[in-house]
Amino acid sequence: MEQVSSFGDTGDGGVDRPALSDNHKAARDWLCSELRERGYTVLVDNIGNVFGCLDLAGPDAPRVMVGSHLDSQPKGGRFDGAYGVVVALTAVETWRREAAECGIAPSCNYVIVDWMNEEGARFQPSLLGSSVYAGSLTRDFALARTDRDGKTVEQELLRTGYLGTDEPPQPDCFLEVHIEGDTALEQAGKRIAPFVRHWGALKIRIEVIGQQNHTGPTPMEDRHDAVLGAAYIIAKVRELADTAAGTLYTSVARVDISPNSPNIVPGKAVLFVELRAPEPDMLEWSEAQLKAALPTLAENASVEAQIIAIDHRPAGKFDQRLVGLAEQGADKFGYPRMRLDTIAGHDAVAVNAVMPAIVIAVPSVNGVIHRCDEYTSPEDLAAGGNVLLDMIRQLDLAGGSLDNAGDVK
Question: Where does Zn(2+) 1 bind (predicted)?
């Protein structure tokens, strides 16, 4: 963790490692080197996902995939994502050593994965690499995504050397360990929480068009202020959450303003709206409410507003067998546990559509995530690793069978 945190170190405890940046490339290069030194075959697919493949049981054996992502938010925390990759490699290597020492012939092969652009900070939408892998997004769509400077995913994959041609592995299940990013575990005095459900999300991009003009002489009644229109929309987005407290989370965390000069009435604003809910009906209701309100909100500012893109991530449930296996592992080590939903997106959410998947959470101090003071104690990091190791062990001893894993003591 110390080593991977050095890539993009911001000097205040955090990291700045957006997808396909130089810092991200450095972290990925380091991971690939670590994998190759340990005898893994490194594959890079055509959307930039990195897979370290370890064949311990022959070509036809079941395959277990574990991992997360190395990209971060701008000036984000050092545990989000990176911990999941490091703990994956640590757990697989520990099982490999343990099996050799005990004379156990492994029955499964393993894949350590680093998904491309989980965060969605530089390129939208989030979960980009895992969504292409799972088939919910097309490769052409993903490659054409642009950052603020107009650089495409394809261009940056080529620049950083991660536009691969390898056929990605097709494992039988996916395990991901992650910091919670909330206070539920900490407040309840628990250490392990398998996520049982993932909330759905709508990522909506709204373009507000006004008229550029001088902020001095232009009469107030003649102004067509795109940011004023954006402000009305932002307030409405928050109002939706207040109307459905606890069942709808909303945000507008990014606004791109043009031309973004203090002396110009803005002619354009693009809003990045998020609506998150556990139930499809709530997402449909909030989307309909926002669409219905847009014309009036725009008219109030003498501007025009239109939705230019919607990315939809459906709600769902993680595999209950993997939930139970995580709970068995926690119990073996005496770790207090609870079940949680995940409101945030994770790569396992995308992958869950094509194979059994799970995210297991460990506590976040004060619930902080996406910030430099994001922190999980070494003891809790190790607890997540121990549970992951036990899940790997039980799956291997059961011949990769999810139905039988856990029965072997």
Answer: 69, 80, 178
Is the Cβ–Cβ distance between 229 and 269 less than 8 Å?
A: yes
Q: Is 178 annotated as a binding residue?
A: yes
d(CA 254, CA 236): 15
Q: Find out whether 71 is annotated in a ligand binding site.
A: no
Q: What is the pLDDT of residues 56-114, one digit of tens each?
A: 999 999 999 999 999 999 999 999 999 999 999 999 999 999 999 999 999 999 999 99
Q: Coil, helix or strand for 239?
A: helix
On average, the pLDDT of the chain sits at: 97
Is 140 labelled as part of a ligand binding site?
no
| Residues 6+ positions from 3 with CB-CB distance below 8 Å | 30
Percent residues over pLDDT 70 in the chain: 99
Q: Contact 272/254 with Cβ under 8 angstroms? A: yes
Measuring CA to CA, which residue among 406, 397, 403, 398 is closest to residue 95?
397
For 408, the token pair is 């072997």
Q: Mind listing the domains of the chain with CATH numbers? A: 4-199+315-397 (3.40.630.10), 200-313 (3.30.70.360)
The strand pairing partners of 178, in sequence order, are 361
Q: How many helices (H) and strands (E) does the chain have?
A: 11, 15
Question: Under a CB-based contact definition with an 8 Å cutoff, are residues 301 and 197 in contact?
Answer: no
Closest CA to 355 of 385, 321, 386, 378: 321
Angle between helices 153-160 and 22-37 (to 10 degrees): 50
CB 7, CB 16: distance < 8 Å: no
Does the annotation list 119 as a binding residue? yes
